[in-house]
């Protein structure tokens, strides 16, 4: 393990990652392979170790990223992986896409043509169909038109279409209305695939499952399950349970730099938003919003100290924050505290923090900043 500054750090458990992947594999039918979504530096967990662990220890061959820089980063760590770029690549980079043997998500005939004009070698593609997310992709109107458009794209010189895919908008919801919506999205992509088959075109890949679909509506017809958040052990949606045994991969820790007893009336932190009502013990902790621990947690978040929850008091600063340790008499300078993770019998998850300030666990883990070293443990 590299030496690191014990100020604020994230512990990433590769053992938990492997366990999560095993559970996801057991959910999938034998027809479906995992495509690990490792965009945004593996949801803030760090490409290098995550990709190597997934490829070498979990036998994962398929990876998805958001852009070309990420694809090239993943390629560095895994020379034989299949890497799909889900998002936009400016067509002038088409040559790089083929050079690194990357697969590009293609959203229209025009885009595919532009790519083809910018590369001397063929480009591998999966055509993205917009069946209801309203973000990117060929807009699905009816099966015939959609299949015809894909056929047109396949006829472009140097464009090699290997699959089609779509993205669900509400697979993480269990309301009847949303379930029906996702049913329709799934029907549209499968109808398109089947229409292509009836035209004599059998593509190797058709995929539509994200983490939520993998957990709640697994389909053997999806050749890949594009699993992101669930690999890292967080909920696609906090209100729905995830399969037993899946656990968060990342913990976030810092230390107490100072403990002091303050008298009633003492103001704590910027803006004087907190005033001690009585004598209390206050600890200062070495993490702040520049580390990605949101300022929106001011006077709201809790931190585990010796297995006990302690409230943040006053505003979270850029590099430090203060907590009430009146109930933890043994707390002292140098103690390790847990902002995300388990300490004793209690656990604070990224999902819990997210719900306090109105976001999702995805944003919490992606937001842990560069300044925070990722430490890999087994
Ligand atoms: C991010 C993303 C995923 C993974 O989503 P999770 O909810 O993290 O599983 C899958 N497909 C596409 C197109 C995405 O953008």
Descriptors for this entry?
binds pyridoxal-5'-phosphate, elongated, TIM Barrel, Lyase, Ornithine Decarboxylase, Chain A, domain 1, 9-stranded parallel β-sheet, 11 helices, 378 residues
Number of strands: 20
Assign the CATH superfamily of the largest domain: Alanine racemase
CATH fold-level name of the largest domain: TIM Barrel
Mean pLDDT reading: 98
Shape: elongated
**Distance from first to last alpha carbon:** 11 Å
Low-confidence stretches: none
In CATH's first tier, which class of the largest domain applies?
Answer: Alpha Beta
- Characterize the main sheet: 9 strands, parallel
Oligomer: single chain
Please explain how this structure is put together.
With 378 residues, the protein is an alpha/beta fold. The chain has 2 domains: 14-232, Alpha-Beta Barrel (TIM Barrel); 250-348, Lyase, Ornithine Decarboxylase, Chain A, domain 1 (Beta Barrel). Helix content is 29%, strand content 26%. It has 11 helices and 20 strands. Strands 2, 3, 4, 5, 6, 7, 8, 9 and 10 form a 9-stranded parallel β-sheet that branches. Helix 7 (143-154) crosses helix 8. It is elongated. The mean pLDDT is 98. The site of pyridoxal-5'-phosphate has 11 residues, from helix 9 and strand 10.
């Amino acid at each position: 393990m590299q030496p690191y500054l014990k100020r604020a750090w994230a512990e990433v458990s590769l053992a938990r990652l492997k366990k999560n992947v095993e559970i996801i594999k057991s959910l999938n039918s034998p027809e479906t392979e995992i495509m690990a979504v490792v965009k945004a530096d593996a949801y803030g967990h760090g490409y290098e170790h995550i990709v190597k662990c997934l490829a070498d220890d979990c036998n994962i061959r398929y990876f998805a990223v958001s852009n070309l820089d990420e694809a090239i980063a993943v390629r560095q760590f895994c020379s034989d992986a299949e890497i799909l770029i889900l998002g936009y690549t400016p067509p002038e980079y088409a040559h790089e896409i083929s050079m690194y043997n990357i697969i590009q998500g293609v959203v229209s005939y025009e885009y595919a043509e532009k790519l083809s004009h910018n590369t001397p070698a063929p480009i591998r593609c999966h055509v993205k169909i917009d069946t209801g997310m309203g973000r990117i992709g060929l807009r699905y109107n009816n099966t015939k038109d959609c299949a015809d458009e894909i056929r047109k794209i396949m006829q472009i010189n140097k464009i090699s279409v290997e699959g089609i895919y779509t993205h669900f908008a509400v697979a993480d919801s269990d309301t009847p209305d949303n379930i029906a919506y996702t049913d329709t999205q799934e029907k549209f992509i499968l109808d398109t695939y089947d229409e292509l088959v009836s035209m004599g075109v059998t593509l190797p890949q058709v995929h539509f499952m994200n983490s939520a679909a993998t957990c709640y509506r697994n389909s053997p017809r999806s050749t890949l399950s594009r699993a992101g958040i669930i690999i890292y052990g967080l909920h696609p949606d906090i209100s729905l349970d995830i399969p037993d045994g899946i656990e968060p991969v990342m913990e976030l820790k810092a230390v107490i730099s100072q403990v002091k007893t303050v008298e009633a009336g003492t103001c704590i932190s910027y803006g004087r938003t907190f005033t001690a009502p009585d004598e209390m013990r206050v600890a200062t902790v070495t993490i702040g919003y520049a580390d990605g621990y949101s300022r929106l947690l001011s006077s709201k978040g809790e931190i585990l100290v010796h297995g006990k929850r302690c409230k943040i008091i006053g505003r979270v600063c850029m590099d430090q924050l203060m907590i009430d340790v009146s109930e933890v008499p043994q707390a002292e300078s140098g103690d390790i505290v847990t902002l995300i993770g388990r300490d004793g019998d209690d656990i604070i998850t990224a999902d819990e923090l997210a719900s306090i300030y109105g976001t999702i666990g995805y944003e919490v883990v992606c937001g842990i900043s560069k300044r925070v070293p990722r430490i890999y443990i087994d």
